[in-house]
């Protein structure tokens, strides 16, 4: 499975997944169980829409059309950020590690 779309939040991920499924592409939304970890975990890039490898090209075409018609400047296709590490997730994990180290020192 490949990431066809990186959503801002879980709701947007389901909207895009619904669009893909309405066009005959099976889509899976990832990031459900991470939603409770932080209030707006989607900002950290964990809400993604996954599709099968053979459907990736068509899914990205549909996502591109969705972005053009929705006028959303915050929407990001996975093709634009595929090789770039997620900045927010890296900082979140670093902060979590620091807090864990501090707690280990205290106890």
Structure commentary:
- The protein has 107 residues and is of the alpha+beta class.
- The chain has a single domain, classed as Alpha-Beta Plaits (2-Layer Sandwich), CATH 3.30.70.
- The protein is 49% helix and 14% strand.
- The protein is built from four helices and four strands; from the N terminus they run E-H-E-E-H-E-H-H.
- It has a four-stranded antiparallel beta sheet with strand order 2-3-1-4.
- The longest helix is centred in the last third of the chain and has 20 residues.
- It starts with a strand and ends with a helix.
- About 7% of the residues have low confidence.
Name of the CATH class: Alpha Beta
What structural class do helix, strand and pairing data support? alpha+beta
Unreliable residue runs: 73-79
Using only C-alpha atoms, the radius of gyration works out to 16 Å
Helicity level, as a percent range?
Answer: 40-55%
Question: Distance between the terminal alpha carbons, to the nearest Å?
Answer: 43 Å
Q: Count structural domains.
A: 1
The H/E string reads EHEEHEHH
Global mean pLDDT: 78
């Amino acid at each position: 499975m490949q990431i066809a779309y990186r959503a801002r939040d879980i709701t947007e991920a389901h909207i895009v997944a619904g669009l893909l499924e309405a066009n005959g592409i099976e889509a899976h939304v990832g990031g459900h169980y991470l939603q409770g970890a932080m209030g707006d975990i989607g900002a950290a890039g964990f809400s993604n829409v996954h599709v099968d490898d053979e459907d990736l090209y068509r899914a990205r075409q549909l996502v591109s059309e969705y972005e053009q018609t929705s006028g959303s400047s915050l929407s990001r296709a996975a093709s634009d950020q595929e090789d770039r590490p997620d900045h927010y997730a890296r900082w979140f994990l670093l902060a979590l590690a620091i807090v864990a180290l501090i707690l280990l020192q205290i106890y």
